[in-house]
Automatic annotation (TrEMBL):
It holds the Pfam family Polysacc_deac_1. GO terms for cellular component: plasma membrane; side of membrane. It comes from the Eukaryota. This is Carbohydrate esterase family 4 protein. Keywords: Carbohydrate metabolism, Cell membrane, Cell wall biogenesis/degradation, Glycoprotein, GPI-anchor, Hydrolase, Lipoprotein, Membrane, Metal-binding, Signal. The keyword Methyltransferase does not apply. Residues 36-221 form the NodB homology domain. It is a lipid-anchor; GPI-anchor. One of its GO terms (molecular function) is metal ion binding. InterPro entries: Glyco_hydro/deAcase_b/a-brl (IPR011330), NODB_dom (IPR002509).
Length: 283
């Protein structure tokens, strides 16, 4: 009898293990949780259309989600990009990481993956004073190691369940058909992929999607809202711009650190809003 009990306890201990194990790796979110929510997500910026897209959402009483790079379609530290990133964030749109230089993360080493995430965290900490809670891997490519690293950096992975194909050669009508299919089939909810870097997306698709989904009674919310979680690990205060805010000497688009570019693997400085005035925190 004791042996049976011991065996049952052993089995329950094994059964209990997976829940512990799930907390050592990131979750991968591909769809919303809440009914009637649509999260329209925009990758590859900040670019020249960021301000327009953010303003279109704001005017419609809707929220957008932007997964940003540091050095892809230009440098996030240029004055114009800094201003538009601050503008979108201040309007309540969600900001997430899309890695520094948009490489295929599955081809990089652990040090290179950490570097790609570190540099984005550093940029958001400097420009906005936030720690991102979500990372969208470029092209949606990820593996177990990437999930583990993201978890160690406090971030879950954000994918999507509908793709407009706006950066893959779809014309405007083809991309609009993706929205129409979702609306006409009365989809329960959706995380939809667009790209901030496409002019037609900014000028045609966004107004079309906003009008269509609003007319069908959907809530146009951020990814975090449709999941019912926080968009950020922490919200502090932005830092003062300095000459160290540069893309010079960082991985160029599509590549990782290494060679003459030292890989950064620590945790970037973060200014908490609760820091006493006159003290420069985390330096
Ligand atoms: Zn991308």
């Amino acid at each position: 009898m004791h042996l049976v009990l011991a065996a049952l306890l052993a089995v329950s201990a094994v059964w209990g293990h997976p829940s512990l194990e799930s907390r050592t790796t990131s979750q991968v979110y591909k769809s919303c949780v809440k009914t009637n929510d649509i999260a329209l997500t925009f990758d590859d910026g900040p670019y020249i259309y960021l301000r327009n897209i953010a303003d279109e959402f704001t005017a419609a009483g809707a929220k957008a989600t932007f997964f940003m790079n540091g050095n892809n379609w230009g440098c996030i530290y240029s004055d114009d990009r800094i201003a538009s990133v601050k503008h979108a964030y201040a309007a309540g749109h969600m900001i997430g990481s899309h890695t520094w230089s948009h490489p295929d993360l599955t081809t990089l080493s652990t040090a290179q993956i950490n570097d790609e995430m570190f540099r984005m965290e550093e940029a958001f900490s400097r420009i906005l004073g936030i720690k991102p809670a979500f990372m969208r891997p470029p092209s949606g490519y990820y593996n177990a190691n990437i999930k583990k690293i993201a978890f160690s950096r406090g971030q879950n992975l954000a994918l999507w369940d509908m793709d407009t194909g706006d950066a893959d050669g779809n014309n405007t009508a083809q991309s609009e058909a993706v929205y129409n299919d979702a609306a006409n089939s009365k989809v329960k909810n959706a995380v939809i992929l667009q790209h901030e870097t496409e002019e037609d997306t900014a000028t045609k698709l966004v107004p079309y999607a906003l009008k269509l989904f609003k007319s069908k009674g959907y809530n146009l919310v951020t990814l975090a809202e449709c999941l019912g979680v926080s968009p950020y690990q922490a919200v502090g205060v932005a830092q003062k711009q300095s000459s160290s805010w540069t893309c010079d000497g960082t991985p160029s688009p599509g590549t990782g650190c290494g060679g003459s570019i030292a890989c950064k693997t620590g945790t970037p400085a973060f200014s908490s809003s609760s820091a006493p005035s006159g003290v420069v925190p985390n330096e």
